[in-house]
Amino acid sequence: MKQWMGVPVASALLLSACVTINVYFPAAEAKQAAKEFVEKVINDADKVQIKETPSGGGGGMVMQTPRARFDAARFDMAGFDPWVLLGIGSAQAQSAPDISIKTPAIQAIQSRMESRFSSSLRAGFDSGALGFTSDGLVSLRDPSKVELKDRVALNTAVADDNRDRKAVYREVAVANGHPEWEEQIRGVFAKQWISSARAGWWYQSGGAWKQK
Amino acid sequence: MPRLMLTRCMPLLPLVPALLLLAAPEAAAREAQLRVARLSTAVATLQQVRVQLRWQDQAAQGELQVWAGKVDAPGLGYHCRDLHWRCPLRRSPTGWQCAGALRSGSLPPLQLALQLETASTRVLLAQGRARLKVEQVAATPDLTTLELQKVPLAWAQALLTQAWPAAQFKAGTLDGRLQVHAPTAAPLRVQGDLQLGAASFATTDAGIVGEQLSGTLQMDYRSAAAHASVQLDGQWHAGEFLAGNTYVALPASPVQFHVQAEQRAGQGWQLPRIEWRDGAALTAIASARLHTDGSLQGLSVQMHSDDMTPLKPRYLSGWMGMAGLGDVELHGRMDVQAQVDANGLAAVTARLEGVDVRDPNGRFVFDGLRGDVGYSAGAPVASALQWNGGQLYGLAFGAATLPFASSAGELRTRAAVKVPLMGGTLGLRDVVIRPPHGEAGMDIRFGLQLAGIDFGRISQALGLPAFQGTLGGSIPRAHYAQDRIDFDGGLNLELFDGRVAFSQLSLERPFGTAPSLSADVAMDDLDLMRLTEVLGFGSISGKLDGRIQGLRLVDWSPVAFDARFITDDAPGVRKRISQRAVQDIGSVGGSSFIQTLQGKVIALFKDFGYRRIGIGCHLENQICTMNGLHSAGNTFTIVEGAGVPRLDVVGYNRAVDWSTLVERLLAASKGDVAPVID
Q: Where are the domains of chain B?
């Protein structure tokens, strides 16, 4: 047993002694991954969206379903590895910097967040009761917008969602082999929730609440 | 405030007859006017008062008008502007009467009726169905009686604002009878019985909200310059109430309450006795002291519950929902004593009797909790908690006793604890619990020992293949903080005549979203025959070593690891692999067979000799990068044959989607495979 364990360990030691590998946080990929995640959660109940086409065409505004928009976005993904989407990656695919949010655990959390968003949180954002915080969470910013009978359910939904959010930020970092990226990933997501927010929703900026 | 201005002036109505009396002697003339710059009484001050009476000669009635520019009753919180009352004044057999509209600015008018008799003065104020009757008897000039019928709570807003500036009534009515004693030389006293109908209120930040509160109330309020006191007795019949995260849903059965409160000049309110009696669900008796700014200075509370089942829906749903325990069920009897001082929680003792705590989501169960748990921020206290049994994630544990000692804000075990667990024992020692305090969350440190645990029962409980073995080990230090448990030390599992060692264990979000377990696993000399038997993976004889580094299970499914398994070169061990196992391995590796034999020939042999078997998988991002004994390009050798016929198994395509691999493994264990055979 010792015999076979020793060889790869020794060679790894040898390699690491000679080569310094710098890993930079793949900000662009993280942003793309966060965008996919956030828009899936937020967009679920939006059947029709008006959105600028990301590339090609004559520009301008077109009506698109979320499905069509997602495809359009995929064409624009510079450096995005389609193998990951197909489910079978090549060895090469893993060496390129990529932020994956495709693990079943993250997807399970995502779909839970999606249904929670459409069943309770969206109404809170529409009414102005809820806001996105600057650290990537949700906060009940104006309880007076919520009727008492709905308060406990909304408080619970917010607490559950924040637990899910923290788990996502952590697990995305860990799933990509860099637990130390957790705070950066949280920061990227925090920006994305705000940038994907609909007009009229509230968000936290520099300690104050602002309306988009 | 301006909206309610008119209604806020009701308590001043007894003053109106006084004005009328001033005007009355002039009644014989065609017109009389009286101007008073300032009129002060014990209750209120009126400014810019004008009374005008017109009476046609021989007419049966005259016209009375009263104006008041400013009316202030600072003791009651009422401040009115620009009041005007106009009414026809008639003589009655025993006095005078006048009824007409009372206006203030552009607000909807109230109907004000005045009956002025030698023995008494009566005032009736009405709006819609609301009626407020005020009566004063000449023989007892200090006593005013108020009768209320469907009186909107909004009329009492000024009183509320005075007691609680941030709060506002939203809806509700008052019925009942109040007596106001306002002697000049003695304290103001208000007493009587009231019925509250569907009352709703909220603070401006909506941090404290009540809705549809219905109940009856007996009150006795006294107020003097240096001392104010109030005593309330009553019962609630319905309604809901929220303060921060505390949500109270009042039951249909009546809840009795009693409150005594007093305030001395320059000090905060003292509440020497608060009682709350909600049948078998909860009896609470408390006393509290507040600072002048309303913040809590001290609280002492004793609670008793004969039936904890209703506690969650009635009192705990807000907190339990926030903590992710919204579905947890509580049953049993409980007594709690708690003291809170200016520094926070000073001491708590909870006595439990036959308490069952169950999480329907299967995370934990505690059955038959009894005994006590005592926490002290100061002097030492001892306690002991027992349970009959329970479950953690489906793993059943038996009866145990936890002897606790607490002082200086820590809860420690006084002696080692042994908990029967799956045929063996789980030992806990040196447990130190620090409850959440200020910014710091819950912090628990403990030592853990496992001995003789039947892994077969664990496998069965967790739905794993029927692994048979014994789990043991020692974790001298484990630390829970920030929703994460780190285990310092390791566990050993004796399995298939070999050993499996777990180290670098940590568990994130143990009872939260997607619990994540991390570990390094090393396996030594596992008997392959027994392993393959259990896995339904053909039959291989020999010994297997292996290691799984950086294993991470999220929600109990693997998301990352670097695993490598290889047969041991122990001398004298027979090394054979069955034809079925060859096919299963082939299907898992996505391999095809090469060299020496054609596929058809394989079928002629029951088993083959092998020199070595090795397979590895590095899982990351849902992709397993496979390797074998040795790799070349995109191929890797899993089985190196030995003897005749010699059979090698070579895998192709090293990157495999993890879910595909799991499907292949499951199919192979069910004997449902169709390998590619060249």
A: 416-495, 499-669
